[in-house]
Amino acid sequence: MNIPQLDTDTGTRSGASIVLETARDAGVDVCFANPGTTEMPFVGALDTVAGVRSILGLFEGVCTGAADGYGRMAGKPAMTLLHLGPGHANGVANLHNARRARTPILNIVGDHTRDHLKYDAPLTSDIESLARPVSVWYRSVAREADLATDTADAISAAMGAQRGVATLVLPVDLQSVKVRDAASPAVVRPAAESFDHARVERVADLLLSGHRAVLLMGGRALSARGQRAAARIAAATGATCFSETFPARAERGGGLPDIDRLPYFPEPALAALADRRVVLAGALAPVTYFGYEGIPGELARPEDIVMLAEPGDAADEALEALADRIGAPGNAVGVQVERWEVEEGPLTPQAVGRVLANALPDDAIVSIEGGTCGYPFVTASARARRHTILTNTGGAIGQGLPVALGAAVACPERRVFALQSDGSAQYTIQALWTMARERLPIVMLIASNRRYGILQTELARSGLPADTPHASRLTLLDDPPIDWLALSRGYGVAAERASTVQALSQALDAALAHADGPRLIEMCLS
Amino acid sequence: MNIPQLDTDTGTRSGASIVLETARDAGVDVCFANPGTTEMPFVGALDTVAGVRSILGLFEGVCTGAADGYGRMAGKPAMTLLHLGPGHANGVANLHNARRARTPILNIVGDHTRDHLKYDAPLTSDIESLARPVSVWYRSVAREADLATDTADAISAAMGAQRGVATLVLPVDLQSVKVRDAASPAVVRPAAESFDHARVERVADLLLSGHRAVLLMGGRALSARGQRAAARIAAATGATCFSETFPARAERGGGLPDIDRLPYFPEPALAALADRRVVLAGALAPVTYFGYEGIPGELARPEDIVMLAEPGDAADEALEALADRIGAPGNAVGVQVERWEVEEGPLTPQAVGRVLANALPDDAIVSIEGGTCGYPFVTASARARRHTILTNTGGAIGQGLPVALGAAVACPERRVFALQSDGSAQYTIQALWTMARERLPIVMLIASNRRYGILQTELARSGLPADTPHASRLTLLDDPPIDWLALSRGYGVAAERASTVQALSQALDAALAHADGPRLIEMCLS
Fold first, then answer.
1. Using the beta-carbon criterion (under 8 Å), do A459 and B43 form an inter-chain contact?
2. Which residues of A touch B479 (CB under 8 A)?
3. What residue in B sits closest to A458 (Cα-Cα)?
4. What is the interface size between A and B, counted as CB pairs within 8 Å?
5. What is the ipTM of this complex?
6. Which residues pair with A199 in a beta bridge?
7. Yes or no, beta carbons of B289 and A121 under 8 Å apart
8. Do B459 and A427 touch (CB under 8 A)?
9. Within an 8 Å CB–CB cutoff, is residue B516 touching chain A?
């Protein structure tokens, strides 16, 4: 491998520099990296191209999850830098979540030199087959002349109508190739987000004719503007409002209306939607999370579904236009910011939700993974100060800590919390190290119940006993108990334990008094 | 989801029970599991079908790597149990290594109910696209009637001529379906391993005509029997012997000949093979690990390569037949077991290799990941007592600890060591917890140099400076330093630190005095 640097004598640049410059000039200025040998020219270019921040992850799922969190908050892509097929594969689970969140990501994967692939060397792998399921766009750069345009095309695709992960494979020889004349700057064209006025008219007619309706909200409908418009519509028409169950991003608190999430389990979700037209505002048609015997997969009949705005549309603007069109009064009443009274005692999930809601400073971001404390927190958080929640959109666990990491990189002026179940935290536990390395003041709250709660719930639903030997062994995490304080210290993160309401409250106050790095609180749940 | 148990009144069994019984009856009796909701009927069946040991991993890469280590030692497949496409994807890196090792694995992946896939629910994923690159065989069970035969076909494929990973997808409705009449027992047919006598004749003619030759050995050639036969051939003909660079499994020490590994870097590998015929005995034709400018990808010219035995052949028997055919004397001299004299002082990689070689009890297994100490250990280990080494066959890092875990499950009577670099250990660090849970007496030696050594080496090779800001940040792991003792305690594993030869020697003695669970030794390298 012969990796040229910027050669000032001859005026050449490396292929990697061209990719980096093109990305940076399109606004992509963060790279979450776990490079290997085939990415070394790209690493070298990070030292010659100014303006791109590189952040190392010890595991690829940390990088891809961080890029997801970053993209949700920044509204533009971060780069990843992954090592061939196996490195990419380690990032697939969180790319799957990013795909469901429609998060723009420029997913850069290094590969062997082009002429080495035919030898089927140990690390040779079918990157395309591994990448297609999570990518809206895939290309392996074939020629030196395409480096800039392929990069621009990737960013355009990530920001396009099918927003999501664009996977750009860079053979190492094209990273290191010396290029004399760079192509003229490649053009990135993000899709413009708009909405369809004819749909607004149809939904208005429906509501004005007295149909009972549910507004099912996702995407930009869950911005503050979208929620206020939805509340106006609800007040004027009696429609109910639900967020999709796992929104990529939703604003909460600070006087916004309390828009609940559509229930996860099918029975209450069916009840919430029964006998109503379901107006989709940036959300997909609701289906059950899993297939359950005797329960329809579609939570609403297709003939009851009405499209107001697609997930990629400006659903907030569509809701405003709808509210105006039906003559809804201009101010909807939101929920006042108010502290919860929480009695001192053991840490129940409900108490955790309320204590955290009380503790949030203005403009906090809360990455939520796991149902144990996640649901009670969202129930409590309508009363909190204004904040943003980020949830697990695709069900691939190990998402919460990396997403918090990426959000903290995107928003250095906001405090970031990770409300995280213990089982799912383990999949990308290495995120702690990067948080410490980057001095990111993230507060992690680990809900330590030492079991896979969702599996025990699903076992019970299915009539299977959870206390038989194998089922127990595969759903319990108590032998040995994970020592979260030790783990956290192992990665350089200060940690403490809280078993009571008062202890958690004090631990949160102590954590918020510092902004010099991450803090972890193990919550021992009752 | 409605999951029937074995119903003694009606004589029905669940589909999952049929899969489990078929696997168990074919000798597959260990399941490395990280299940989710769609695998709950399978979990339930583990409580009704006797004779399958289930072992929980906190991350899928732990499960697949453990299945690789198990299969290499047991010579038969373990099952994995993974959760849809994203769970499978987390296991892909170590399945990639298993594919290169030709390790038989029955890779079971749960999926949605068949009629739920059309709704594209959050966890719906293209499992086939994610699985094909690492699987020699792939099938999603389509019908109740196929459960037993598909399972048997999967095991036959895993043990077939194209030995490797067989991926069997089980929709959850087919796991829970009640089956009245089980099909007659499905038949598993592993491929018989043999060799081609005509090839033996051709190689014998070559050697007897005085051609200089290298025996390049892999697969069964690296058994004790194969190595002894190779040494006879070498003594009789002047041929040199090399192991492939990253063997799945090789016997070492205990009086065996010292057969070195073909060098990793291309220049010394080319020198080792220059001007010789390359006789392949269970190894693939040698190619460079990566593509390097100005260096051929093929380390030997195709016209110089002679096939004695394919990777799936009985290469040890072929070598014996060859030794007999050329009239090589019956006893080749091996290396005597002898302790290295190691002076007290700081821990250099060479000292680590020798101290560990001295400490190995008879029939130890050493899982090696990372070059820093791996190469010096293999150099030293020819003098050790008889042991087996397992190496990283596919280059996807995060392999060493899970492989040690699986080997310990396969061989409870043997002591297992993991000689492991710190950077690669992080990818599947959760393996520690399963080792503690299963009370496996594995001794982990973490080579803590707080950097990605291989990346700094490759940067230096390519003429790029490793001390520029970004290159440093992406190859150094010293900020914060990972506290291995704390991490280890976090997962319930006793740990200590060694910075000198004497301290390491004492720590190894102390670890070997216990057989009640894993021990970790952080080796602070000089």
1. yes
2. 437
3. B37
4. 329
5. 0.96
6. none
7. yes
8. no
9. no
Of B36, B56, B455, the CB nearest to A37: B455
| B282, two tokens | 């269970």
DSSP B152-200: HHHHHHHTSTT-SEEEEEEEHHHHH-EESSPPSPPPP-PPPP---HHHH
Residue positions counted in chain A: 526
Which letter does DSSP use for residue B263 in this model? P
Nearest CA in chain B to A94: B86
What percent of chain A is helix, strand and coil (3-state, nearest 5)? 40, 20, 40
| Model pTM score | 0.97
CB contact under 8 A, B47 and A292: no
CB contact under 8 A, A471 and B113: no
- Do you know the residue count of chain B? 526
A371-381 and A453-461 helices cross at what angle (nearest 10)?
100
Same fold, A13-179 and A197-325: yes
What is d(CA B233, CA B239) in angstroms, rounded to the nearest whole number? 7
SS3 label, residue A366:
strand
B31 contact A CB<8A: no
pLDDT in single tens digits along all 526 residues of chain A: 333 344 555 678 999 999 999 999 999 999 999 999 999 999 999 999 999 999 999 999 999 999 999 999 999 999 999 999 999 999 999 999 999 999 999 999 999 999 999 999 999 999 999 999 999 999 999 999 999 999 999 999 999 999 999 999 999 999 999 998 766 667 888 888 999 999 999 999 999 999 999 999 999 999 999 999 999 999 999 999 999 999 999 999 999 999 999 999 999 999 999 999 999 999 999 999 999 989 999 999 999 999 999 999 999 999 999 999 999 998 878 999 999 999 999 999 999 999 999 999 999 999 999 988 999 999 999 999 999 999 999 999 999 999 999 999 999 999 999 999 999 999 999 999 999 999 999 999 999 988 888 888 888 877 777 778 888 888 888 889 999 999 999 999 999 999 999 999 999 999 999 999 999 999 999 8
The nearest CA of chain B is from the CA of A414 a distance in Å of: 23
Residues 397-436 of A with CB under 8 A from B: 398, 423, 426-427, 429-430, 433, 436
Superfamily grouping for domain B349-524: Thiamin diphosphate (ThDP)-binding fold, Pyr/PP domains (3.40.50.970)
Q: Nearest by CB to A43, from B427, B429, B471: name it.
A: B471
Fold of B197-325: Rossmann fold (3.40.50)
The radius of gyration computed from the CA coordinates of chain B, to the nearest angstrom, equals 24
Q: Which residue of A has its CA nearest to B424?
A: A58
Q: Please state the domain extents for chain A.
A: 13-179, 197-325, 349-524
Are B423 and A58 within 8 A, CB to CB? yes
CATH number of B13-179: 3.40.50.970
Per CB-CB distance under 8 Å, the chain B contacts of A470 are 43, 46-47, 54
Q: Where are the beta strands (DSSP E) in B379-518?
A: 387-391, 416-421, 442-448, 494-498
Tell me if residue B417 falls in helix, strand or coil: strand
Count of Cβ atoms closer than 10 Å to residue B340 Cβ: 16
CA of A44 vs chain B CAs: smallest distance (Å): 6
